[in-house]
Amino acid sequence: MKVLKFGGTSVGSAERMKAVAKLVFNDEPKIVVLSAMSGTTNSLVEISNALYKNKTDQANEIINTLEEKYYKVVDELFSVKEFKEKGKELLSTHFGLIRSLMGDDLSDTEDLSSGQAGKKILSQGELISTGLFHLYLTEQKIDSVLLPALNFMRIDTNSEPDSYYIKENLTRELQLYPDKKLFITQGYICKNLFGEIDNLKRGGSDYTASLIGVAINSEEVQIWTDISGFHNNDPRYVGNTFSISQLSFDEAAELAYFGAKVLHPSTVLPAKLANIPVRLKNTMKPDDEGTLITDKPTGDGIKAIAAKDGITAIKIKSDRMLLAYGFLTKVFQVFEHFETPIDMITTSEVAVSVTIDDASRLRRIVEELKKIGEVEVSKNMTIVCLVGHNIMNQKGYIHKVFEALNYFPLRMISYGGSMHNISILIPSEEKKAVLEALHKSLF
Ligand code: ADP
Ligand code: ASP
Ligand code: MG
After folding, report:
1. Beta bridge partners of 254
2. Would you identify the CATH topology of the domain 303-442?
Protein backbone atom coordinates (compact mmCIF):
# COMPACT_ATOMS: atom_id res chain seq x y z
CA MET A 1 0.00 0.00 0.00
CA LYS A 2 1.30 3.46 -0.91
CA VAL A 3 0.94 6.70 1.03
CA LEU A 4 0.18 9.86 -1.00
CA LYS A 5 0.31 13.24 0.71
CA PHE A 6 -1.21 16.30 -0.96
CA GLY A 7 -0.15 19.72 0.31
CA GLY A 8 -2.07 22.95 0.77
CA THR A 9 -1.89 24.21 -2.82
CA SER A 10 -2.72 20.74 -4.16
CA VAL A 11 -6.09 20.90 -2.37
CA GLY A 12 -6.28 24.72 -2.45
CA SER A 13 -9.52 25.07 -4.44
CA ALA A 14 -12.54 23.04 -5.53
CA GLU A 15 -10.89 22.57 -8.90
CA ARG A 16 -7.67 21.30 -7.33
CA MET A 17 -9.57 18.87 -5.10
CA LYS A 18 -11.27 17.45 -8.18
CA ALA A 19 -7.87 16.99 -9.80
CA VAL A 20 -6.59 15.14 -6.72
CA ALA A 21 -9.65 12.86 -6.84
CA LYS A 22 -8.72 11.95 -10.43
CA LEU A 23 -5.11 11.22 -9.37
CA VAL A 24 -6.07 8.88 -6.55
CA PHE A 25 -8.93 7.09 -8.31
CA ASN A 26 -7.42 3.81 -9.48
CA ASP A 27 -7.11 0.25 -8.23
CA GLU A 28 -3.91 0.69 -6.23
CA PRO A 29 -4.53 0.48 -2.47
CA LYS A 30 -3.46 3.72 -0.81
CA ILE A 31 -3.71 6.07 2.15
CA VAL A 32 -4.19 9.69 1.08
CA VAL A 33 -2.96 12.29 3.58
CA LEU A 34 -4.29 15.83 3.11
CA SER A 35 -3.11 19.19 4.41
CA ALA A 36 -5.47 22.05 5.07
CA MET A 37 -6.36 24.13 1.98
CA SER A 38 -3.60 26.67 1.36
CA GLY A 39 -3.74 29.74 3.58
CA THR A 40 -6.11 28.11 6.07
CA THR A 41 -3.60 27.24 8.80
CA ASN A 42 -2.17 30.77 8.59
CA SER A 43 -5.67 32.18 9.11
CA LEU A 44 -6.29 29.81 12.01
CA VAL A 45 -3.03 30.96 13.63
CA GLU A 46 -4.18 34.58 13.19
CA ILE A 47 -7.53 33.73 14.79
CA SER A 48 -5.76 32.10 17.75
CA ASN A 49 -3.44 35.07 18.17
CA ALA A 50 -6.27 37.58 17.96
CA LEU A 51 -8.22 35.67 20.60
CA TYR A 52 -5.19 35.49 22.85
CA LYS A 53 -4.89 39.25 22.67
CA ASN A 54 -8.59 39.51 23.44
CA LYS A 55 -9.25 41.04 20.02
CA THR A 56 -12.56 39.28 19.54
CA ASP A 57 -13.69 41.59 16.72
CA GLN A 58 -10.55 40.93 14.74
CA ALA A 59 -10.90 37.16 15.33
CA ASN A 60 -14.53 37.29 14.18
CA GLU A 61 -13.57 39.11 11.03
CA ILE A 62 -10.98 36.49 10.05
CA ILE A 63 -13.38 33.67 10.88
CA ASN A 64 -16.11 35.23 8.73
CA THR A 65 -13.77 35.75 5.76
CA LEU A 66 -12.47 32.19 6.00
CA GLU A 67 -15.98 30.78 6.31
CA GLU A 68 -17.14 32.72 3.25
CA LYS A 69 -14.24 31.29 1.24
CA TYR A 70 -15.24 27.76 2.26
CA TYR A 71 -18.89 28.26 1.34
CA LYS A 72 -17.73 29.18 -2.16
CA VAL A 73 -15.58 26.04 -2.28
CA VAL A 74 -18.57 23.90 -1.32
CA ASP A 75 -20.66 25.54 -4.04
CA GLU A 76 -18.04 24.81 -6.67
CA LEU A 77 -17.07 21.36 -5.45
CA PHE A 78 -20.45 19.65 -5.34
CA SER A 79 -22.98 19.41 -8.14
CA VAL A 80 -25.72 17.46 -6.33
CA LYS A 81 -27.96 19.53 -4.03
CA GLU A 82 -27.91 16.92 -1.27
CA PHE A 83 -24.10 17.04 -1.17
CA LYS A 84 -23.99 20.83 -1.24
CA GLU A 85 -26.17 20.70 1.87
CA LYS A 86 -23.94 18.11 3.53
CA GLY A 87 -20.88 20.22 2.72
CA LYS A 88 -22.48 23.25 4.33
CA GLU A 89 -23.41 21.20 7.41
CA LEU A 90 -19.80 20.13 7.70
CA LEU A 91 -18.64 23.74 7.54
CA SER A 92 -21.20 24.82 10.09
CA THR A 93 -19.96 22.12 12.53
CA HIS A 94 -16.30 23.16 12.22
CA PHE A 95 -16.84 26.92 12.21
CA GLY A 96 -19.30 26.46 15.10
CA LEU A 97 -16.54 24.76 17.04
CA ILE A 98 -14.05 27.53 16.27
CA ARG A 99 -16.58 30.13 17.47
CA SER A 100 -17.38 28.10 20.60
CA LEU A 101 -13.69 28.17 21.57
CA MET A 102 -13.80 31.93 21.71
CA GLY A 103 -15.46 31.64 25.11
CA ASP A 104 -12.79 29.31 26.54
CA ASP A 105 -10.70 30.45 29.46
CA LEU A 106 -7.44 31.29 27.79
CA SER A 107 -5.75 33.00 30.70
CA ASP A 108 -3.37 30.16 31.57
CA THR A 109 -1.80 29.79 28.11
CA GLU A 110 1.31 31.72 27.28
CA ASP A 111 0.49 32.00 23.61
CA LEU A 112 -2.85 30.78 22.41
CA SER A 113 -1.67 28.63 19.50
CA SER A 114 0.40 26.61 21.96
CA GLY A 115 -2.52 26.12 24.35
CA GLN A 116 -5.34 23.59 24.02
CA ALA A 117 -7.95 25.99 22.62
CA GLY A 118 -5.43 27.22 20.04
CA LYS A 119 -4.45 23.70 19.01
CA LYS A 120 -8.11 22.76 18.59
CA ILE A 121 -8.52 25.79 16.32
CA LEU A 122 -5.40 24.87 14.30
CA SER A 123 -6.68 21.32 13.77
CA GLN A 124 -9.84 22.47 11.96
CA GLY A 125 -8.05 23.06 8.63
CA GLU A 126 -7.14 19.43 8.03
CA LEU A 127 -10.46 18.20 9.45
CA ILE A 128 -12.36 20.39 6.97
CA SER A 129 -10.23 19.55 3.89
CA THR A 130 -10.45 15.79 4.47
CA GLY A 131 -14.15 16.01 5.33
CA LEU A 132 -14.95 17.88 2.11
CA PHE A 133 -12.73 15.64 -0.01
CA HIS A 134 -14.29 12.46 1.37
CA LEU A 135 -17.73 13.90 0.74
CA TYR A 136 -16.76 14.77 -2.82
CA LEU A 137 -15.52 11.21 -3.45
CA THR A 138 -18.83 9.93 -2.10
CA GLU A 139 -20.75 12.24 -4.43
CA GLN A 140 -18.65 10.92 -7.30
CA LYS A 141 -19.46 7.35 -6.17
CA ILE A 142 -15.80 6.66 -5.47
CA ASP A 143 -15.59 4.29 -2.54
CA SER A 144 -13.32 5.57 0.25
CA VAL A 145 -12.91 5.54 4.02
CA LEU A 146 -12.18 8.61 6.14
CA LEU A 147 -9.72 7.58 8.86
CA PRO A 148 -9.56 10.07 11.75
CA ALA A 149 -5.86 10.78 12.35
CA LEU A 150 -6.73 11.61 15.95
CA ASN A 151 -7.48 7.89 16.46
CA PHE A 152 -3.91 6.81 15.73
CA MET A 153 -1.42 9.71 15.47
CA ARG A 154 0.11 10.38 18.86
CA ILE A 155 3.14 12.20 20.23
CA ASP A 156 4.88 11.50 23.53
CA THR A 157 5.96 13.86 26.32
CA ASN A 158 8.98 14.99 24.25
CA SER A 159 6.63 15.84 21.33
CA GLU A 160 8.14 12.93 19.42
CA PRO A 161 5.83 10.57 17.53
CA ASP A 162 4.99 7.39 19.40
CA SER A 163 5.68 4.93 16.57
CA TYR A 164 4.49 1.89 18.51
CA TYR A 165 1.12 3.50 19.29
CA ILE A 166 0.74 4.75 15.72
CA LYS A 167 1.42 1.34 14.21
CA GLU A 168 -0.89 -0.54 16.64
CA ASN A 169 -3.79 1.85 16.26
CA LEU A 170 -3.53 2.49 12.53
CA THR A 171 -3.33 -1.25 11.89
CA ARG A 172 -6.44 -1.76 14.02
CA GLU A 173 -8.31 0.99 12.15
CA LEU A 174 -7.35 -0.46 8.76
CA GLN A 175 -8.41 -3.97 9.78
CA LEU A 176 -11.95 -2.67 10.22
CA TYR A 177 -12.11 -2.26 6.43
CA PRO A 178 -10.52 -5.37 4.86
CA ASP A 179 -12.20 -4.80 1.48
CA LYS A 180 -11.42 -1.10 1.07
CA LYS A 181 -8.60 0.32 -1.00
CA LEU A 182 -8.80 4.08 -0.66
CA PHE A 183 -8.28 5.70 2.74
CA ILE A 184 -8.24 9.42 3.47
CA THR A 185 -6.72 10.95 6.57
CA GLN A 186 -5.50 14.27 8.01
CA GLY A 187 -1.90 15.36 7.96
CA TYR A 188 -0.36 17.52 10.70
CA ILE A 189 -2.81 16.82 13.53
CA CYS A 190 -2.34 14.32 16.33
CA LYS A 191 -3.04 13.78 20.02
CA ASN A 192 -0.56 14.13 22.84
CA LEU A 193 -0.01 11.83 25.78
CA PHE A 194 -2.80 13.51 27.74
CA GLY A 195 -5.27 12.78 24.96
CA GLU A 196 -5.41 16.45 23.94
CA ILE A 197 -5.34 17.65 20.34
CA ASP A 198 -1.85 18.59 19.22
CA ASN A 199 0.12 18.89 15.97
CA LEU A 200 3.42 18.02 14.32
CA LYS A 201 4.42 21.69 13.85
CA ARG A 202 3.96 23.82 10.74
CA GLY A 203 4.38 21.91 7.49
CA GLY A 204 3.97 18.67 9.45
CA SER A 205 1.70 16.82 6.97
CA ASP A 206 4.80 15.55 5.18
CA TYR A 207 5.91 14.06 8.48
CA THR A 208 2.48 12.43 8.97
CA ALA A 209 2.90 10.76 5.58
CA SER A 210 6.28 9.26 6.40
CA LEU A 211 5.14 8.13 9.86
CA ILE A 212 2.14 6.39 8.28
CA GLY A 213 4.41 4.94 5.59
CA VAL A 214 6.58 3.36 8.26
CA ALA A 215 3.60 2.19 10.34
CA ILE A 216 2.12 0.23 7.41
CA ASN A 217 5.51 -0.69 5.91
CA SER A 218 4.50 1.08 2.73
CA GLU A 219 6.33 0.46 -0.55
CA GLU A 220 6.55 4.21 -1.21
CA VAL A 221 5.64 7.55 0.32
CA GLN A 222 4.67 10.21 -2.22
CA ILE A 223 4.68 13.91 -1.39
CA TRP A 224 2.51 15.72 -3.95
CA THR A 225 3.09 19.47 -3.99
CA ASP A 226 3.17 22.53 -6.27
CA ILE A 227 6.63 21.98 -7.77
CA SER A 228 8.22 19.10 -9.69
CA GLY A 229 10.45 17.81 -6.89
CA PHE A 230 13.50 19.02 -5.03
CA HIS A 231 15.15 21.90 -6.88
CA ASN A 232 18.87 22.55 -6.83
CA ASN A 233 18.33 25.95 -5.17
CA ASP A 234 15.50 27.80 -3.46
CA PRO A 235 13.10 28.78 -6.28
CA ARG A 236 11.62 31.53 -4.09
CA TYR A 237 14.90 33.45 -4.28
CA VAL A 238 16.75 32.21 -7.37
CA GLY A 239 15.68 31.96 -11.01
CA ASN A 240 16.51 29.04 -13.33
CA THR A 241 16.56 26.38 -10.64
CA PHE A 242 15.90 22.83 -11.81
CA SER A 243 14.56 19.64 -10.33
CA ILE A 244 16.91 16.88 -9.13
CA SER A 245 15.76 13.43 -10.20
CA GLN A 246 17.41 11.48 -7.37
CA LEU A 247 18.68 12.19 -3.88
CA SER A 248 19.88 9.99 -1.05
CA PHE A 249 18.07 10.09 2.31
CA ASP A 250 21.05 11.89 3.84
CA GLU A 251 21.17 14.56 1.16
CA ALA A 252 17.41 15.17 1.33
CA ALA A 253 17.45 15.29 5.14
CA GLU A 254 20.23 17.84 5.12
CA LEU A 255 18.49 20.05 2.54
CA ALA A 256 15.15 19.85 4.34
CA TYR A 257 16.74 20.64 7.67
CA PHE A 258 18.63 23.58 6.21
CA GLY A 259 15.60 25.28 4.80
CA ALA A 260 14.32 23.56 1.64
CA LYS A 261 10.66 24.17 2.45
CA VAL A 262 9.45 21.54 -0.01
CA LEU A 263 9.91 18.84 2.66
CA HIS A 264 9.30 19.09 6.43
CA PRO A 265 12.71 18.49 8.07
CA SER A 266 11.59 15.48 10.13
CA THR A 267 10.09 13.60 7.17
CA VAL A 268 13.21 11.83 5.96
CA LEU A 269 14.47 10.10 9.10
CA PRO A 270 11.61 7.61 9.64
CA ALA A 271 11.65 6.74 5.93
CA LYS A 272 15.42 6.30 5.98
CA LEU A 273 15.33 4.01 9.04
CA ALA A 274 12.66 1.84 7.43
CA ASN A 275 14.24 2.22 3.97
CA ILE A 276 11.00 3.41 2.34
CA PRO A 277 11.51 5.49 -0.83
CA VAL A 278 10.06 8.99 -0.76
CA ARG A 279 8.94 10.46 -4.08
CA LEU A 280 8.21 14.15 -4.63
CA LYS A 281 5.63 14.86 -7.35
CA ASN A 282 3.89 17.90 -8.82
CA THR A 283 0.08 17.79 -8.55
CA MET A 284 -0.26 20.34 -11.38
CA LYS A 285 2.16 18.40 -13.63
CA PRO A 286 1.72 14.76 -12.64
CA ASP A 287 3.71 13.51 -15.64
CA ASP A 288 6.88 15.32 -14.55
CA GLU A 289 9.44 12.97 -13.11
CA GLY A 290 9.87 14.69 -9.72
CA THR A 291 12.48 13.52 -7.22
CA LEU A 292 13.06 10.04 -5.85
CA ILE A 293 14.75 9.83 -2.44
CA THR A 294 16.29 6.45 -1.58
CA ASP A 295 19.26 4.95 0.28
CA LYS A 296 21.32 4.88 -2.94
CA PRO A 297 24.15 7.33 -3.48
CA THR A 298 23.49 9.29 -6.62
CA GLY A 299 26.74 10.55 -8.09
CA ASP A 300 29.36 12.76 -6.51
CA GLY A 301 29.49 16.53 -6.25
CA ILE A 302 27.32 19.41 -5.09
CA LYS A 303 23.70 18.84 -6.00
CA ALA A 304 21.78 21.54 -4.25
CA ILE A 305 21.83 24.63 -2.07
CA ALA A 306 19.41 25.54 0.72
CA ALA A 307 19.24 28.31 3.27
CA LYS A 308 17.89 28.53 6.79
CA ASP A 309 17.06 31.92 8.36
CA GLY A 310 16.57 33.01 11.95
CA ILE A 311 19.96 31.78 13.10
CA THR A 312 21.85 33.23 16.06
CA ALA A 313 25.64 32.95 16.26
CA ILE A 314 27.40 32.96 19.63
CA LYS A 315 31.16 33.38 20.03
CA ILE A 316 32.84 32.46 23.31
CA LYS A 317 36.42 33.69 23.65
CA SER A 318 38.81 32.86 26.45
CA ASP A 319 42.58 33.04 26.76
CA ARG A 320 42.25 30.21 29.24
CA MET A 321 41.30 28.03 26.29
CA LEU A 322 44.87 28.17 25.00
CA LEU A 323 46.43 24.73 25.40
CA ALA A 324 43.68 23.81 27.88
CA TYR A 325 41.37 20.86 27.76
CA GLY A 326 37.79 20.70 29.00
CA PHE A 327 36.84 24.12 27.63
CA LEU A 328 34.48 22.79 24.97
CA THR A 329 32.85 20.47 27.50
CA LYS A 330 31.96 23.48 29.64
CA VAL A 331 30.54 25.33 26.62
CA PHE A 332 28.46 22.36 25.46
CA GLN A 333 27.16 21.72 28.96
CA VAL A 334 25.50 25.13 28.92
CA PHE A 335 23.61 24.30 25.73
CA GLU A 336 22.71 20.88 27.05
CA HIS A 337 21.42 22.39 30.28
CA PHE A 338 19.16 24.78 28.33
CA GLU A 339 18.09 22.00 25.92
CA THR A 340 19.18 24.03 22.92
CA PRO A 341 20.65 22.18 19.94
CA ILE A 342 23.71 23.58 18.16
CA ASP A 343 23.76 23.54 14.34
CA MET A 344 27.17 24.79 13.26
CA ILE A 345 30.41 25.02 15.14
CA THR A 346 33.87 26.42 14.36
CA THR A 347 36.83 26.70 16.68
CA SER A 348 40.15 28.50 16.90
CA GLU A 349 42.75 28.16 19.63
CA VAL A 350 41.15 30.82 21.82
CA ALA A 351 37.55 30.98 20.72
CA VAL A 352 34.63 28.86 19.65
CA SER A 353 31.60 29.97 17.61
CA VAL A 354 28.34 28.06 17.52
CA THR A 355 24.95 28.71 15.94
CA ILE A 356 21.51 28.01 17.33
CA ASP A 357 18.13 28.03 15.65
CA ASP A 358 16.04 28.22 18.81
CA ALA A 359 16.93 31.45 20.60
CA SER A 360 14.15 31.26 23.20
CA ARG A 361 16.64 30.67 26.05
CA LEU A 362 19.36 32.93 24.64
CA ARG A 363 19.49 35.36 27.56
CA ARG A 364 20.10 32.63 30.14
CA ILE A 365 22.56 30.82 27.86
CA VAL A 366 24.62 34.00 27.46
CA GLU A 367 24.54 34.62 31.23
CA GLU A 368 26.04 31.16 31.84
CA LEU A 369 28.58 31.42 29.02
CA LYS A 370 29.87 34.70 30.43
CA LYS A 371 31.22 32.68 33.37
CA ILE A 372 33.49 30.86 30.88
CA GLY A 373 34.66 33.72 28.65
CA GLU A 374 33.81 36.81 26.64
CA VAL A 375 30.56 36.34 24.72
CA GLU A 376 29.50 37.96 21.46
CA VAL A 377 26.07 37.38 19.90
CA SER A 378 25.09 37.99 16.24
CA LYS A 379 21.40 37.76 15.40
CA ASN A 380 19.56 37.59 12.04
CA MET A 381 22.01 35.21 10.45
CA THR A 382 21.41 32.62 7.72
CA ILE A 383 23.04 29.25 7.19
CA VAL A 384 23.62 28.50 3.53
CA CYS A 385 24.13 24.82 3.03
CA LEU A 386 25.71 23.12 0.00
CA VAL A 387 24.74 19.46 -0.27
CA GLY A 388 25.89 16.55 -2.39
CA HIS A 389 27.30 13.07 -2.18
CA ASN A 390 30.98 12.69 -1.33
CA ILE A 391 31.76 16.40 -1.71
CA MET A 392 34.94 15.99 0.33
CA ASN A 393 36.48 13.65 -2.23
CA GLN A 394 35.59 15.74 -5.23
CA LYS A 395 38.27 17.92 -6.73
CA GLY A 396 38.15 21.18 -8.61
CA TYR A 397 35.00 22.83 -7.29
CA ILE A 398 35.94 24.55 -4.06
CA HIS A 399 37.46 27.56 -5.82
CA LYS A 400 34.07 28.10 -7.45
CA VAL A 401 32.45 28.26 -4.02
CA PHE A 402 34.96 30.78 -2.71
CA GLU A 403 35.07 32.79 -5.92
CA ALA A 404 31.30 33.21 -5.70
CA LEU A 405 31.51 34.24 -2.04
CA ASN A 406 34.53 36.52 -2.47
CA TYR A 407 32.74 39.80 -1.81
CA PHE A 408 30.37 38.64 0.92
CA PRO A 409 30.94 38.85 4.67
CA LEU A 410 31.25 35.22 5.80
CA ARG A 411 30.79 34.77 9.54
CA MET A 412 31.49 31.01 9.78
CA ILE A 413 32.42 28.17 7.42
CA SER A 414 31.95 24.52 8.31
CA TYR A 415 33.69 22.02 6.06
CA GLY A 416 34.60 18.42 6.78
CA GLY A 417 31.93 17.76 9.39
CA SER A 418 30.26 15.34 7.00
CA MET A 419 31.06 13.98 3.56
CA HIS A 420 28.07 15.66 1.98
CA ASN A 421 27.72 19.16 3.43
CA ILE A 422 29.43 22.53 3.48
CA SER A 423 27.73 25.17 5.62
CA ILE A 424 28.37 28.89 5.51
CA LEU A 425 26.98 31.48 7.89
CA ILE A 426 26.11 34.91 6.48
CA PRO A 427 24.02 37.91 7.55
CA SER A 428 20.44 37.27 6.43
CA GLU A 429 20.28 40.41 4.28
CA GLU A 430 22.92 38.83 1.98
CA LYS A 431 20.98 35.60 1.51
CA LYS A 432 19.40 36.21 -1.89
CA ALA A 433 22.64 37.56 -3.37
CA VAL A 434 24.68 34.66 -1.94
CA LEU A 435 22.26 32.03 -3.23
CA GLU A 436 22.31 33.65 -6.67
CA ALA A 437 26.10 33.94 -6.75
CA LEU A 438 26.60 30.30 -5.75
CA HIS A 439 23.98 29.19 -8.26
CA LYS A 440 25.68 31.00 -11.09
CA SER A 441 29.08 29.68 -10.17
CA LEU A 442 28.18 26.04 -9.42
CA PHE A 443 25.35 25.11 -11.79
P1 ADP B 1 2.90 22.03 0.35
O2 ADP B 1 1.84 22.99 0.73
O3 ADP B 1 2.55 21.16 -0.79
O4 ADP B 1 3.43 21.27 1.54
P5 ADP B 1 5.15 23.82 0.52
O6 ADP B 1 4.83 25.24 0.22
O7 ADP B 1 5.33 23.41 1.93
O8 ADP B 1 4.08 22.91 -0.22
O9 ADP B 1 6.49 23.41 -0.29
C10 ADP B 1 6.60 23.65 -1.65
C11 ADP B 1 7.37 24.95 -1.89
O12 ADP B 1 8.70 24.83 -1.37
C13 ADP B 1 7.61 25.27 -3.34
O14 ADP B 1 6.53 25.95 -3.89
C15 ADP B 1 8.88 26.12 -3.30
O16 ADP B 1 8.61 27.48 -3.38
C17 ADP B 1 9.47 25.85 -1.92
N18 ADP B 1 10.88 25.40 -1.97
C19 ADP B 1 11.88 25.89 -1.21
N20 ADP B 1 13.05 25.30 -1.49
C21 ADP B 1 12.79 24.37 -2.43
C22 ADP B 1 13.60 23.44 -3.15
N23 ADP B 1 14.89 23.31 -2.91
N24 ADP B 1 12.99 22.69 -4.08
C25 ADP B 1 11.68 22.82 -4.34
N26 ADP B 1 10.87 23.67 -3.70
C27 ADP B 1 11.40 24.45 -2.76
N1 ASP C 1 -1.59 22.80 7.37
C2 ASP C 1 -0.37 22.73 8.13
C3 ASP C 1 0.48 23.98 7.88
O4 ASP C 1 0.10 24.83 7.08
C5 ASP C 1 0.42 21.49 7.85
C6 ASP C 1 0.92 21.32 6.43
O7 ASP C 1 0.47 21.99 5.52
O8 ASP C 1 1.77 20.44 6.22
O9 ASP C 1 1.49 24.12 8.50
MG1 MG D 1 4.79 21.76 3.08
Report:
1. none
2. VC0802-like (3.30.2130)
